[in-house]
Design a protein that fits this description.
This protein is of the alpha+beta class and 302 residues long. It has six helices and 15 strands. The longest helix has 19 residues. The chain starts with 24 loop residues before the first helix and ends in a 5-residue tail after the last helix. Bound molecules: zinc ion.
Length: 302
């Protein structure tokens, strides 16, 4: 096998996280007051975007334009300029020419990608973590953000809580010159993608690939290899892209999850990506499944 995977969407953000500044309260206050400081704004799960002709741009606002209950979360430095993220009420009215849009819809539309999409994805993950972790998981008391928003502390029991990331495996299951794609019962219409599943406590990435492939497709795996990863902040996944050599041909589907699976060769997959297959459409733009399948099709992996 050869591995030269294309960096997946939502990776390679240019922002300098400047983590050494998170514990420096004076530096955080100075940066919040800096004229070049800007913040992304999340209203509930949705990000503030400016609507452009034929596209979207994340709208970065001066900090004094945004009112919030908690201090802004420090994202990092963009060419030295401080960048934050702020959470506001879920029913906020957007400024003129702007709209609150869920990142997933923005990605799937194909109107938002590249470096800015990677930055917004990270902002969504950390912002969503704060929304869901206001209370201490140990004693239930209200917690307070610290370290520029990269930690929450419980003033009652002194427990410290850190942003979580949930590992998920997603795999090219290959057999000779063919790859398996499947239709999940929750997918729209004709959409097919790679199978995926959470890594369970006590498992390695490779073990999770083998277990999920057997559970979902009924296929035993030979060689399993890790290829590349993608943060997927819906709400907090880190997708581990893998390749697995199947030892069986016939699918036995986990019917609660999948309604169909097919083997496709590279020509058949290319036709799917060109939109020439009436019953099968490819994974959404922005998803690692799309970049992994394209890499396999172009023989960069496999
Ligand atoms: Zn507590």
């Amino acid at each position: 096998m050869t591995y030269r995977p294309t960096p997946p969407p939502l990776t390679g953000a240019s922002l300098d996280r400047a983590a050494h500044l998170r514990e420096d309260r004076d530096a955080l206050l100075r940066m919040q007051a800096d004229a070049s400081a800007r913040t992304l704004v999340f209203s509930g799960d949705a990000t503030l975007f400016r609507l452009l002709e034929g596209g979207l741009r994340a709208e970065w606002l001066p900090l004094d334009r945004v009112e919030a209950d908690e201090p802004p979360i420090f994202l990092g430095l963009a060419e030295g300029a401080p960048r934050f993220v702020t959470r506001i009420d879920a029913d906020a009215v957007p400024p003129e020419g702007c709209k609150y849009i869920d990142l997933r819809s923005a990605l799937f539309s194909g109107d938002f990608e590249g470096d800015e999409a990677a930055i917004v994805a990270g902002a969504k993950a950390i912002s969503g973590w704060h929304a869901g972790h206001r209370h201490c998981a140990r004693c239930g008391a209200l917690t307070v953000p610290e370290q520029g928003g990269w930690k929450r502390r419980c003033p009652t029991c002194e427990a410290q809580h850190f942003p979580r990331t949930d590992p998920v495996v997603i795999m090219l299951v290959v057999r000779g010159e063919r790859v398996a794609i499947a239709h999940n019962v929750n997918f729209p219409d004709t959409l097919y993608s790679l199978i995926a599943g959470f890594v369970e406590p006590g498992e390695t990435i490779e073990e999770a690939v083998r277990r999920e492939t057997l559970e979902e497709l009924g296929l035993r795996c030979g060689r399993v290899d890790y290829l590349c990863s993608q943060p997927w902040p819906f709400p907090a996944a880190l997708m581990f892209g893998c390749i697995a050599e199947a030892l069986d041909d016939d699918f036995t589907l986990e019917e609660a999850e999948l309604s169909d699976a097919v083997w496709l060769d590279r020509d058949e997959l290319a036709a799917v990506f060109r939109g020439e297959n009436e019953t099968i459409s490819p994974p959404r733009k922005g998803a690692i499944a799309s970049s992994l399948l394209r890499d396999w099709m172009e023989r960069k992996v496999g």
